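re the bet — no i am not wrong, look at it urself. input seq straight from the record:
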Amino acid sequence: MGWVCADGVNLIKLIIMKKAIIICIFQCLGLFSFSQDYEPLVQKAMEYYENDLFEEAALEYEKALPLIEKEYGTTDTSYYSKQVINTAKCYVKIQQYDKAERLYLRAKSIHDSITDTPNSAYLALLNKMAILYYLMGRYEEGVLLYKETLTIYKLQSGENHPTYATCLNNLATLYQAMGEFEQAESLLKQSIEIFKIQHGESHPDYASGIGNLASLYYDIGRYNESMLLYEQSLKIHKMQLGENNTKYARILNDLALLYEDLGRYEQAETLIKQSLKIYKAQLGENHPIYALILNNLAALHKGMGRYQSSELLYKQAIGIYKIQLGENHPYYAQSLSNLAILYEDMGRYDQMESLYQQAMKIYRVKHGENHPNYAKYLNNLGSLYQILERYEQAEQLYNQALEIYKLNLNENHPSCASVLNNLSTLYRSMERYTEAENFIKQALELFEINYGKDNPVYAKKLITLSLLYIEIERYAEAEYFLKKAQEIYKVQLSENHPYIGTVHNHLIELYLTINRLDLIKPLALDAFHNYHFQIKNNTGYLSERELQLFLKKFLYYLGFYQSFNNYQNQNSNGDFAYDIELTRKGILLKSSLRVKHSILESGDTSLINAYYDLGFIRKKIDKLKMKAPEEQGEDPVKLEAQANNLEKVLTLKSKDYHQAQQENEITWKDVKQNLEPGEAAIEFSSFHYYKGKKTTDSLLYCAVVLRSTDTIPQMIYLCEESQLKKIIPLSTATPRKINFTYNSEYDEGQSLYDLIWSPIDSLLNGIKTVYFAPSGLLNSISIAAIPCPDNKALIDKYSLVQLSTTRTLALPEESEIINDAIVYGGIIYDTDTTTLLNTAEKYTKDESDMLAYNR
């Protein structure tokens, strides 16, 4: 029988077939005897791969390839090229992309040489190569391969085939990584439509498609649409695959990450734990994917301020990676880095160093010392050394990281800008100001190239430059750049964005330093109202850790403003000083948390959703304002309207939300309106004194007095805390010591009156009832028992009502907050010292239950 060859390709096929037949005949005759030593190697490699031991698998495949090539030849597609591809897949898994690329190209050249009609194996290879180029950041090459694949699928199967839809989805993933979001969205929608037509809306492929679209919307800040699609995908997976399927678990995890970003921490935790349970049942507790979800839960707990739990979870994930993947795997290195970042928040810097060094060693072995991932760890370790004031080591690491980024990325890459910024802050700490200025200016140039001069990211670096100028007393330049940043923020951000409050605070510090007090009050008022807005609208959505950080910064600046009020003209700023104390005493923060718990425990789904929707819309508005208008994608004005509508819903449906909104709006004027003739309200204030360039150790005490007849409250300086400490009795004080403190016949008693009450006594002529809210050490003494010069106690001259805050006076009568107050009155004192002493002890014990502020 003769052979008919239509072309050269078929001739090659014929030669190969003849060779195979000849080999088979010779084997049967016993003339050839291949040991096939490669088979045990391939089998072992496959076992390693199945157990995620990719490096070991690659080594076994490499041993087998020469033997397979010897038997099948370099143009074989039936077995040799398949093992070449399998070897490449191992290198992809261990991120040795150059080796993977060489192998994929070898396999491609084999297919190209023997066939003119692409088969499924060839298309699968193109898809793998495109994924590799995606991982290598060579997106354009990946796009070309996916487009080639699409063309082939279109010719072979048509545009409505599920395989064509899958390829559309893959190309969309690349466009998403490139920031080409419109093209990505268009392709994903086409893909979803094909799945819908071919399989219906209840098919897992359709669910995966909308899940990918949800991921895209998450990346571009369209959170509401993202959440709805994730929830829809989750429902389909649950219906079709059941609640124990790993695909269902993956969507649970993705939705949890979205909830975390939106501040819905309790829901996020529930979903991640549910995902963990599924992976545990399906894959076991020692699987790397289980460790990945543990990492996500640890990160969530870190954000919630639950550090101990976070640490245990990170360590559990590290243990799994160590056993399953070994101590040289990138996943193991990343987990070590995650734990180091947690320790930074916990202040455990000594443990951070060894973790970063281990991670660096792994990446150095895997990728060499010129890989961007290695540079990332150099930069992180440099930041740690800067915190520890090991400046020379930090400098060396920063410079090394910068060179790697320049070599592997480009000199204008944002990563280069970040390292230049770090070098600037380092040199500022080292008082090498010329170099600090040089590097921050270089960083600014790169931020301008990457973001533009009107971007808030650029403005933030202008502030860094201005703070340097303040430190080296180049005040005119500092003011210029702060004002420039202020202008950018005002144009690009909403008027209540936190960044605007931040730049105002820096201007205040500058003007205090150069004694331009006339410029401070408008800025301080704006910054105060900005913080007030954040408390009112955002604190309920913060995690515990975020709330702690916010509170620390918030209280610092409130004390900062009080220092200014005292520093300038006390009486002219009494209104501002009073409102600061109303805010600082904690009612607003308590209200925010009370509202959150009340709504979440209500069981009203529509109310809970409205509460969370309001939170993520506000976050979305802030994020959109950080972008140029043409990049926003959504209209912030429309989002503001949505937020306002949600506020109306919450106000109508939640009594606590409505009450909190009322409380948040109370000012000194509202308190005044509730004072009767003969009544006064006093807010005591304690704060660190700011002088020149820094906050001093001196803690000052003032009283802000408000009477029903005042046009403005009056701020009166009282004393320093060091003076109070000398006379206030400790909790372990003897009765004799307490007797000295509350008796005008002794120096301690006279001093107590002189420090705390004498400065305000003249303002209380004709006053019968005094409402007062203590601060600091004043919470630990009995104001009522302070002796007057005439040997009477204050309680004998006034009806004294102690409150946690005088805001209480302006609350509706049915409010329960008034129950927090301790009322002194109706007790008749005589001149008997023992009676006075016993009463004072009683008051001191009662006051131990009061909230203490600013301690």
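see?? The beta strands are 679-691, 694-707, 714-720, 769-773, 799-802, 822-823. told u. also The CA atoms of residues 486 and 853 lie 33 Å apart. so pay up
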